[in-house]
Amino acid sequence: AADALRSDLLEEQGLEPSVRRPQIDVLEQENREHILLDPFREPNVTRALVDLGVQCGEGSGGFLGQLMPCSSSIIELASFVVRRGAESQDFHPDTSRRADDAESVTAFVALQRTTVGMG
User: Fold this and answer.
1) What phi and psi, each to the nearest 5 degrees, are found at residue 112?
2) DSSP-based three-state secondary structure for 76
């Protein structure tokens, strides 16, 4: 499922912006894209989530199911496409927090083997 999702995302890179998935502005946009994903409309996204173990309940739950309680919600699902030549980034928050915000966790899952030299 990860290979199929990666293939979908890479194929989309050559399409006109008007037909591509929605994106969010990121630092160093020349070499990076933050693409929003919709598991309710994109079967390869749904399959990748199932492979990661998003389901909750007895006898189920992979990586994400063990990391987060069943009452958790996914509030954003996105893919970062980083192209060769991208500079590495220091730790930084992507959102600002307020005292009354719920606790949030960000998890990254590589869809291919990665190296430091890939940015």
Assistant:
1) -155, 170
2) coil
pTM reported for the whole predicted model: 0.66
Q: Quickly list H helices, 21-86.
A: 43-52, 63-67
Amino acid at site 60:
S
The dihedral of CA 90, 94, 96, 98: what is its sign?
A: negative
- Tally the C-alpha atoms within 13 A of residue 37's C-alpha that lie toward its C-beta: 22
Give per-residue pLDDT as tens, 99-112.
666 777 777 777 77
Q: What whole-number distance in Å separates Cα of residue 88 and Cα of residue 90?
A: 7
Amino acid letter, 74: I
What CA–CA distance (Å, rounded) separates 28 from 88?
Answer: 10
Q: Give the closest residue to 12 by CA, choosing from 103, 72, 79, 112.
A: 79
Give CA–CA dist 25/80, Å, rounded.
11
Summarised one tens digit per residue, pLDDT across range 40-91 is 888 888 888 877 776 655 555 566 666 677 777 777 888 888 877 888 777 7
